[in-house]
Design goal:
Elements: H1 34-44, E1 66-74, E2 78-84, E3 87-92, E4 107-116, E5 121-125, H2 126-137, E6 143-151, E7 155-160, E8 163-168, E9 187-196, E10 201-205, H3 206-223, E11 230-238, E12 242-247, E13 250-255, E14 276-285, E15 290-294, H4 306-309, E16 315-324, E17 327-333, E18 336-341, E19 363-372, E20 377-381, H5 393-396, E21 402-410, E22 414-420, E23 423-428, E24 449-458, E25 463-467, H6 474-482
Parallel strand pairs: 3-5, 13-15, 23-25
Antiparallel strand pairs: 1-2, 1-4, 2-3, 4-5, 6-7, 6-9, 7-8, 9-10, 11-12, 11-14, 12-13, 14-15, 16-17, 16-19, 17-18, 19-20, 21-22, 21-24, 22-23, 24-25
C-alpha cells in the first residue's frame, strides 16, 4: 500500500457512467448533518463494481470520505473491511479499544485516509469517523460516559471516546467534594450541558445526571408507597413544625401533631437527628411528590381503651404536667393528660391560681371524675380525697356562736374571715360596727385576728354570714319573740356592695 495520500481531484472530472448514479462522499471539513451522513450510506450501496477512470479511485473512496464497510477478517493487527467496488480497507485493531471486538459481517463506519491503487486497498480510521459523527450528533441533554484524565483549575478533564470534555468542579457531585482529584482514572457518566461545534468544546455535568437519577429513584419509591403502611426510617431534620424522616431515599414530614398522642411543645423534645423511628404512611401526594407520616400512628391510640384503664371514681398517683389559668393538667400516662379544674382543688377555699395549690412536677393523688374518650378529655379532682367540711358545718358553727378568725381579704362590701383552714365567712360592712362605716379598711385589715359572731349558715350554698356587732340584749330578744310577727318589708335600697342580702357574695 502506498504511503502517499490520495490528492483531491476535481469533482467535475468524476463523471458517472451512463445510467450510473453519482458517488456519495462526505469530506470531513464540510460538517454535514445527520441526514447527510445517512445519505452517504445509501449512496455507497449504489456505487458501481468497477471504479471509473482506470486506476483512479471513485469519488466514494476519496480521502476524508465517511464510508461503511463490512468486516471480512479480524487479525491481531487489523480489522479488514469490504468497502465495495472490489476495494479492501484496513482499520488498525487498536482503534477498537474500548469498543466490542468486531465480528465478521459487522458493519463499521470509517473514514478514508489513504488509497493504494496497486492493491486497491485503503487505509481507514474508525476513530476519526467516530469523532466526526460524534460532533455532528452530540447535543445538550445527551448522557455520555468517559474517563477522567486530569484536573485543572476549574474542574476535571474527561475523555469521551477521544473527544475532550470539561467537567466543572461545581458539577462533579451532588455534594461538595473537598478533593475532586480522587476521580482521576474513573469512568463517569455525565449529561451534556453545552456544545460548541466550531471550537469543539464540550461542557458536562455529573451532578445533573445524579439529580435526575435520584428524582427517578424517588418517584419510583413514592409510587411503591401504600397509605397505612408501617415503615422504618431515620430522622434527618427537626424543625419547629415537625420532623423529616428518610425512608430508603424518600423523605416524608411528620407534623408536630403526629409526633405523639400527648401534647408536644417542641418536636426536639420527642425526636433528634439520626434517630431510628417507626412511622406510618398517612398520605401520599404523587403529583407533588410529598409524603405525610405519623409516629404516633405507629403505636396504639391510648384513648381507645382509656375508659377501661381509668374508670370513674378510681384514684391514681401522678405528676402535675403544666398549669393554666383555669386549672392544672395532670399526666396520667404518655399521650393522656387530665384536667384538674380550679373548682375541684378545694372544698371551701376560693382558689384564684392553680399554683396556690399545686406546682409543676409535684406528685399528687387525684380521683377520676369524668372520662370522654371521643373528645380526648379526662377530668380529675383533688378535693374528693378529703372529707367535705361543709357536711358538718352546721354543727360546728351554730347561730350566735362566737369564733376567732383571721381576715384574709377585704372588699368594698365587707371582709372575708377564715374561721378554720378552708372555711371562710363574710362580715358585711353593715355588720362591722354599731356605727356607720365608710370603708371596710377603717375597721379591719387583711391578716388581722378578730372575733366574729355567726349570723347564719347556708350549707347548700356553702356560705356563712358573720358579724362583729354585739348580740342584741336578751330582754329585747324575748320581747321581739313575744310580739306579733310583722310583715316583711322590702328594702328600699340594697346593702353596700349592691347586695340585697348578706348571702349574695
Amino acid at each position: 500500500m502506498s504511503d502517499s495520500p490520495i490528492q483531491p481531484e476535481d469533482t467535475s472530472a468524476a463523471t458517472p457512467l451512463p445510467g450510473e448514479p453519482p458517488a456519495a462522499e462526505h469530506p470531513v471539513g464540510d460538517n454535514p448533518s445527520v441526514e447527510q451522513v445517512a445519505s452517504v450510506q445509501v449512496a455507497s450501496a449504489q456505487v458501481p463494481s468497477e471504479p471509473s477512470g482506470g486506476d483512479q479511485p471513485s469519488a466514494a473512496i476519496r480521502a476524508g470520505t465517511i464510508r461503511y464497510g463490512n468486516v471480512i477478517e479480524v487479525t491481531p493487527e487489523d480489522v479488514v473491511l469490504n468497502m465495495g467496488e472490489q476495494v479492501i480497507g484496513r482499520v488498525p485493531f487498536l482503534e477498537f479499544a474500548g469498543h466490542p471486538t468486531p465480528k465478521v459481517g459487522d458493519e463499521v463506519s470509517v473514514i478514508v485516509e489513504q488509497y493504494d491503487p496497486n492493491t486497491k486497498e485503503v487505509a481507514l480510521s474508525k476513530r476519526h469517523a467516530d469523532e466526526v459523527l460524534f460532533w455532528q450528533t452530540v447535543k445538550p441533554g445527551d448522557i455520555l460516559e468517559g474517563v477522567v484524565t486530569g484536573m485543572n483549575k476549574g474542574g476535571l478533564d474527561v475523555d469521551i471516546g477521544g473527544a475532550r470534555a470539561f467537567l466543572p468542579s461545581s458539577q462533579v457531585d451532588l455534594h461538595r467534594m473537598k478533593d475532586i482529584s480522587v476521580l482521576i482514572g474513573e469512568h463517569v457518566s455525565c449529561v451534556v450541558s453545552q456544545v460548541d461545534r466550531t471550537t469543539k468544546d464540550l461542557v458536562l455535568s455529573r451532578r445533573k445526571l445524579q439529580e435526575k437519577e435520584r428524582k427517578q429513584q424517588r418517584q419510583s419509591a413514592i409510587d411503591a408507597l401504600v397509605e397505612g403502611e408501617l415503615r422504618s426510617g431515620k430522622v434527618t431534620n427537626v424543625t419547629e413544625y415537625g420532623a423529616f424522616v428518610d425512608m430508603d431515599g424518600v423523605a416524608g414530614l411528620v407534623h408536630l401533631t403526629d409526633l405523639s398522642w400527648g401534647r408536644i411543645p417542641k418536636p426536639a423534645e420527642v425526636v433528634h437527628v439520626g434517630q431510628e423511628v417507626k412511622v406510618r404512611i398517612l398520605k401520599v401526594d404523587r403529583a407533588k411528590g410529598k409524603v405525610s407520616l405519623g409516629i404516633k400512628q405507629a403505636t396504639p391510640d391510648p384513648w381507645e381503651t382509656v375508659v377501661e384503664r381509668y374508670p370513674v371514681g378510681s384514684r391514681i398517683k401522678t405528676k402535675v404536667a403544666r398549669l393554666a389559668d383555669f386549672g392544672a393538667f395532670i399526666e396520667l400516662e404518655t399521650g393522656v393528660d387530665a384536667l384538674l379544674p380550679l373548682s375541684e382543688m378545694s372544698w371551701s377555699r376560693r382558689v384564684g391560681r392553680p399554683e396556690d395549690i399545686v406546682q409543676i412536677g409535684q406528685e399528687i393523688e387525684v380521683q377520676i371524675l369524668r372520662v370522654e374518650p371521643d373528645k380526648h378529655r379526662v377530668s380529675v379532682g383533688l378535693k374528693q380525697l378529703q372529707e367535705d367540711p361543709w357536711n358538718t358545718i352546721e354543727s360546728r358553727f351554730t347561730a350566735n356562736g362566737k369564733f376567732a378568725g383571721r381576715v384574709v381579704r377585704t372588699t368594698d362590701f365587707g371582709a372575708f374571715v377564715e374561721l378554720v383552714p378552708g372555711i371562710e365567712g363574710l362580715v358585711h360592712i353593715s355588720e362591722l360596727s354599731l356605727h356607720r362605716v365608710n370603708a371596710v379598711t377603717d375597721v379591719v385589715k387583711e391578716g388581722q385576728e378578730i372575733e366574729v359572731r355567726v349570723l347564719k349558715v347556708d350549707k347548700e350554698a356553702q356560705r356563712i354570714s358573720l358579724s362583729m356587732k354585739p348580740p342584741p340584749p336578751q330582754r329585747h330578744a324575748a320581747a321581739q319573740a313575744a310580739a306579733p310577727a310583722k310583715p316583711d318589708k322590702k328594702r328600699k335600697r340594697p346593702l353596700r356592695g349592691g347586695l340585697s342580702s348578706h348571702f349574695e357574695w
